[in-house]
Amino acid sequence: MPQVAKLGPLSKLVKLAGILKKGVLSFVVFEISAAAIGFAAFRTLRRSEEKRKYLYLNWPNCAASYYWLEDSISFGQLTGTRLRLNDQRRWAQIDTENNIESD
Q: Which branch of life, at top level (predicted)?
C-alpha cells in the first residue's frame, strides 16, 4: 500500500499565500488596465469631436458622464458644459435632419 503524504499546516499556509499573492497581482493588473483604458478613452473623446458626436447620438448617458467629468476636472470652470453647448451648436448647424436635444 503506497503512503500518502500528509500536508502539514505549514505547507497549506504556503499554498494559501501563493493563491492570495496571485489574486492580489491579478487585481492590480486589472486596475492598471482599467485605468489605462479609461484614460485612453477620455483622451480620445477630448481630442475628437467626431467621436463625441457618435457617443452623444448613440449613448447619451455616457456622453453626459464625459461632460460631467470634464466639468469636475476643470474645478468649477464648467469646461464640459461649455464644450457640450459648443458641440451641440456646431452639430445643429451641420445636421439639420438630426434631432439633437439640449438640456
A: Eukaryota
- Output the pTM of the full model: 0.66
DSSP 8-state code for residue 74: T
pLDDT digits over 58-80, tens only?
999 999 999 999 999 988 888 89
Domain parsing of the chain, residue ranges: 10-47, 49-103
Pair 73, 79: CB distance under 8 Å: yes
Burial (CB count <10 Å: 0-12, 13-18, 19+), residue 85: middle
- Smallest Cα–Cα separation from 80: which of 69, 94, 96? 69
**What element of type H or E holds 84?**
helix 79-94
Helices marked H in 48-59 — which ranges?
49-58
Spatial contact of 32 and 43, defined as CB atoms under 8 Å apart = no
